Structure formats: structure tokens, C-alpha cells
């Protein structure tokens, strides 16, 4: 790109409408020396900021109509607000968006696995269950391994990283917190974990990354990346329904079992009877909490293994993307065993949307299209 102090980009939407969201692009020249750039239209209407992430910049772009072009003028930001703040202390990382608490990441060595808790929309609506972190009388105390928002799988080599039984010493141990970044567009958390079996030997190394975006309105978009690396021999993810790379236990007030919640997927299926074990590009679980329609949508990236993924999703609020449990999901017609050869890696990407409204009101399909078909960016 041209070495200028101000740069004009063209955002070109595709044939479908773009439902706002993160857009990535490269910048070269003097501007690339700045971690944050100010974005505005040529007539100086503010469009927010672009924040550097590695070799690219990320901007939360506004909604665009089909084939619409938007000119964006970039210049160095002399001052900017920190809308997404990550604060690390004593084996936890607090995430605040627009001065409202969103979630906290826990990774103490006393835990079987790291997890996020609570998960709050608008800083006050808990979208996930409190148990086992906090015991509330109006919540079921089943499945103590369902820790709000987590990553786990039941059969990795000969180890179980899902059930957290007292007589099984398997553990996801945090080796290092690699990044804790705050900013005007996103906050970034990146951690390196070792999945150690009961014998203490490492089964697989896992790196996870979360980008929490400051978007338009109070909905929260998070991009999640999980990479498994076989660096201590081959790694086999055995076929079982008991696991998922992106996992939630919904607040029981908005699960299907109590009649107040509803799950819906990209294929138009709803209810656990229709959605459980079925492949879908996205799933949404929503319901009414304190008079508000709220929900969590999880979107499976097209480059993920066995896209569209199958879902281990239950009427009592368990909700997880599982592309390995095919035998369970197909009555033994398929087998989902998958081997990562020594030295190789396997990466999963998901977009998670914590939203207001039900599935239709939040228009999850448009958000999914924005995830997989972002505007093309070029230099004017």
C-alpha cells in the first residue's frame, strides 16, 4: 500500500447484506507503525477505530447493503478509548466491555480445566449456569464438569478430559498466558495449555485464542480459535458424544427443559430431538431471562474439520460443537475417530454471539454470513 499518512480503503460488500462485524485488512507504510488507526468517511464522519492484530488490522465495520461500497479514511489515532479491557490477576483474567463486566477466565492449577464464568450480557444477565462455581438453590446441581464456557473432550488417546472424575488425574494445565491485550476494537486473550493424562504425560498441546469485540450496541461478538498440536506422539480424538471444542451450559432459566428456552439451527431444526447430533453451520440457544429475550449463538467456520459440525446439544442446557462423536450421532453408521499425526496441528475457529432477542429477532443467519463472507477491502 502507498506510503501516506492518510489512507483510503474501499469496503465492498458481497451479493448478500453484511450484518456488521469484524473486518481484517493489511496496511503498509508509515501508518503500519501505529497500533491503532482512526477510521472515518471522507466527509469526516467517525467510523470508530482499526486495531492491529499481528500483521493485520481489525475494524468493526458497520452494516452494508448487498454490493454496497464504503470509503474508509484511516489516519493515526492520537488518542482513543479502551472499550475492551482485560485485567490479569491471581490466575484469572477479567474481561470488561464498555465498562460493563462480561466474563472472567479462570486457569488455576487447582482446576481440571480453564473456563469462563460468569458470562454476562449488558453486565447483568447471566447467560450460563452458576454451578459448580456458585451453588444457587434454583439451579440443578448435575454434571459438575459443565463449567459455564469451556473447551474439553472425553477421549483423547486414553485420557478423559470431559468428566472430571475424582479418581482421574487428567488435567488441562495452563503452561503460559501468551497475550492479554486491551483496546478500542477488541481485547485478546491467548493461552497455551498442556493436556496431561492421569500418568502425567502430555497427550496434546493446545493453544486457545479469544478476541472479544466492542461492536455496535450491547451484543457481544467473540472470535475463538483452538489449535491442537501433536508434539508428543500421535494424538487420537476417539469417537464419543462426551465432548466439544466450544462448550456452554446455559442458564437453566433459558434452557428448553423448563419450557422457557429454545434451540434453533441453520437447517431450520429446533428442539433437542431435532438438533441433537445433527450437522449445522450454526446453533442458537435463546430464552427469556428477567423479561429479556437473550441467547448465545455459536457459528462453525467452513474451514473447520467436518464442517458443518455436529452438535451435542441438550434440553437441559448443554450446548457444544462436537465433530468427533459421529457413531453416537448416527447410531453407529459412521465413525468419528480422528488422528493428528506427530508434528501436525488441527485448528478450530468459531464465532460466538451473545445477543438480545430470539433467533429470528437477532437474525443469526445474517451474522453467520457476515462471519464467512466479510467485505472485500481494497485501496482507492
**What's the average pLDDT?**
95
Low-pLDDT runs: none
What is the overall silhouette? globular
The second-level CATH architecture of the largest domain is Distorted Sandwich
What proportion of the residues is helical, as a percent range? under 10%
Quote the distance from N terminus to C terminus.
10 Å
String of helices and strands = EEEEEEEEEEEEEEEEEEEHEEEEHEEHHE
Tell me the Rg in angstroms. Answer: 21 Å
| Major beta-sheet overview | 9 strands, antiparallel
In the CATH scheme, the class of the largest domain would be: Mainly Beta
**Binned strand content:** over 45%
Number of separate structural domains: 2
Give your account of this protein's structure.
The protein has 380 residues and is mostly beta strands. It has two domains: 6-80, no CATH class; 84-369, Beta-galactosidase, Chain A, domain 5 (Distorted Sandwich). The protein has helices at residues 272-275, 326-329, 359-362, 364-372, and strands spanning 6-12, 21-25, 36-40, 46-53, 56-61, 69-76, 84-89, 92-97, 100-106, 115-121, 125-126, 149-153, 171-181, 186-196, 202-213, 220-229, 235-237, 243-249, 261-265, 282-289, 292-300, 311-313, 318-321, 338-340, 345-356, 376-379. The strands form four sheets. Strands 7, 8, 9, 10, 11, 12, 18, 22 and 23 form a nine-stranded antiparallel beta sheet that branches. Strand 4 and strand 5 (56-61) form a beta hairpin. The longest helix is centred in the last third of the chain and has 9 residues, at 364-372. It is globular, with a radius of gyration of 21 Å.
